[in-house]
Design brief:
The complex is a heterodimer of chains A (389) and B (156). Chain A has 389 residues and is α/β, with parallel strands linked by helices. Chain A has 16 helices and nine strands. Classes of the chains: A alpha/beta (389), B alpha+beta (156).
Chain lengths: 389, 156
């Protein structure tokens, strides 16, 4: 068993290492496309939005497509409960995101980039637009044929799912599409599209500035580098922390818990709800519990029933309703745990609900319906008593 | 409403008469009135050459595009887990008492609507809420009292 990396705070995202914010762009634009891909691949960077697809490969796939038009899209929908880091990046270091998008456009040949900003962040749209305008001017000055636009969402968690996000940008209901084809082949308007999370673009900028090999020195063999963690719940020090990947949940809780942590939702409501007894064996990273960085801590005063009920209500409301397992499944799971709690159903009904969530995992069309299983199984397997009494 | 017809034409001129303009146009109208009427939706369809079903389908999908009447200030309190744990119920109760409405309702003077919303990205500073697009965080009953009072005191 890997003992894990100790808690190690890193400062690459929010700190600027150049005098002028356009210096990153100027340096990256001197690199060849091959160098850019090579550095990203060597860095081992995996998408920071949660799904963890290798960023270098994604850019390469899109670059290899021949098409009259391609797009770069920045996913700033940040809807996963417990996540709030993308907002901070866009408030504090938007130029790193814009630079990352431009690097991607260079490699892929895209001429237009979009930031899909969730409606909840409309308060910062004007400031972000100013940064984008300034950046676009610089691009024009540097004779780079790429322009960035902001698109405002309208309130739907599922629109963070990449294909639903394209639907939304196209003026439709945000209903996830079947995959394949993947966005690098057919994305926004059916054209090859690279879609990355806000943090992924910002991190790409830093990797291209420092070198992929250097970046890969941080983290483990599977989970390279550092990433931002959004920490909330029962902790005295909530906030955003950039940490080296590969620490154990035990160490994490030692640092951020309140001394009485009984469970942590790693990856928000769609991630695993890890019980205390598994903290030591759980590595935060792709080899253990993967995460988009949302860490919600619960101490022993919290009712797992109330937590799970809150999660299921969230899923029920945010399901796009397109496919039956998710639309009906979310409702039935919520009703089901209510019935067990009230004593209207036998405690063994929890096992039926657990199997239902497994069916949803294999039959739902998108990640929303598929991941409902994660908190349900954790709760039923580890906190059964709390769901019954 | 003739005024909205002009606004819709302007928005269509600005964003273009195509499907991808639908959300910005809907948002433009919703920005002004806080909700979309059936007439707005029909006019938008006509302007953008889309069917009523297409416009309706899109508009009703999104929780921030209201297709039922809303007050001038829409208060949305986050009810997702981190804010819930930080006693969002106390905050909601304070607002309900002040405005004499329940969650989901609009005050008689059409000034305020009180709703719940899902995670709005302020989990480290819960409980949080939006009033129209302005976020407020680290709320307590006292603090929210002061905020709502400020809005109440502003002239229409
Ligand atoms: C229901 C659902 C919601 C999602 N929400 C987001 C989101 O808010 N932000 C995000 O970056 N990715 C989100 N994703 C993941 C995206 O589909 C996609 O994988 C990601 O934007 C790719 O970027 P990355 O490779 O840089 O992580 C979501 C996925 C699902 C299934
Ligand atoms: S799994 Fe849920 S959110 Fe995803 S497509 Fe099906 S109904 Fe929609």
């Amino acid at each position: 068993m890997n003992d894990g990396i100790k808690i190690n705070r890193i400062d690459s995202i929010f700190k600027d290492y150049v005098d002028n914010k356009f210096d990153y762009l100027k340096k990256i634009m001197t690199m060849s496309n091959e160098e850019i891909i090579k550095n990203l691949t060597e860095s081992g960077l995996k998408g920071r939005g949660g799904a963890g697809f290798p960023t270098g490969s994604k850019w390469k796939f899109a670059a290899e497509q021949s098409s009259d038009e391609k797009f770069v899209v920045c996913n700033a929908d940040e809807g996963e409960p417990g996540t709030f880091k993308d907002k901070e990046i866009l408030l504090k270091v938007p130029h790193k995101v814009l630079t990352g998008m431009t690097a991607c456009s260079k490699v892929t040949g895209a001429k237009k980039g979009y930031i899909y900003l969730r409606w909840e962040y409309k308060f910062m749209k004007n400031d972000l637009q100013k940064s984008v305008d300034e950046f676009n001017e610089e691009l024009e000055k540097m004779k780079i044929d790429f322009k960035i636009y902001i698109v405002l969402g309208a309130g739907a968690y599922v629109c963070g799912e990449e294909s639903a996000l394209f639907d939304s940008m196209e003026g439709m209901r945000g209903e996830p599409r079947n995959k394949p084809p993947f966005p690098t082949e057919s994305g926004f308007m059916g054209k090859p599209t690279v879609i990355n999370n806000v943090e992924t673009f910002a991190t790409s900028t830093m990797i291209l500035s420092f070198g992929g090999v250097n970046y890969a020195k941080l983290g483990t063999d599977v989970s390279h580098g550092s990433k931002l963690f959004s920490i909330s719940g029962d902790t005295a020090i909530p906030g955003i922390y950039e940490l080296e990947l590969g620490m154990t949940l035990h160490d994490f809780v030692e640092k951020f818990g309140d001394g009485d942590t009984k469970a942590v939702s790693v990856g928000g409501v769609s991630g695993a709800l890890v019980p205390r007894k598994k903290f030591k064996d759980t590595i935060i990273g792709w080899e253990g519990v993967p995460t988009g960085g949302a860490m919600i801590l619960f101490n022993s005063t919290r009712s797992i029933y109330r937590i799970l009920h809150n999660y299921l209500e969230f899923f029920e409301e945010e399901s796009c309703g397109q496919c039956t397992p998710c639309r009906i499944g979310c409702q039935q799971l919520k009703k089901g745990i209510e019935a067990v709690k009230k004593g209207e159903e036998d405690p063994s009904y929890l096992d039926t609900l657990a199997s239902l969530s497994k069916v949803m995992n294999v039959s739902a069309k998108c990640g929303l319906g598929q991941s409902v299983m994660n908190p349900v199984l954790s709760a039923v397997n580890n906190f059964r008593e709390e769901l019954i009494y | 409403m003739a005024t909205n017809e002009i606004l819709i034409k302007e928005l269509a001129d600005q964003y273009g008469r195509k499907r991808t303009s639908l959300l910005p146009v809907l948002q433009g109208v919703a920005d002004k009135n806080n909700f979309l009427t059936e007439e707005d939706l029909t006019t938008i369809g006509r302007e953008l050459h889309l069917s009523g079903a297409q416009v309706f389908g899109t508009a009703t999908f999104y929780s921030f595009l209201n297709v039922v009447p809303r007050g001038k200030y829409v208060i949305r309190v986050c009810k997702t887990i981190s804010c819930d744990m930080k006693n969002k119920d106390d905050v909601v109760r304070e607002i309900e008492n002040m405005l004499k409405i329940k969650t989901g309702e609009t005050t008689e003077d059409k000034k305020f609507t009180l709703l719940y919303t899902n995670c709005m990205g302020w989990c480290d500073k819960g409980p949080s809420m939006l009033i129209n697009e302005m976020p407020y965080s680290d709320l307590t009953p006292d603090k929210v009292h002061g905020i709502i009072k400020q809005y109440s005191d502003t002239a229409d």
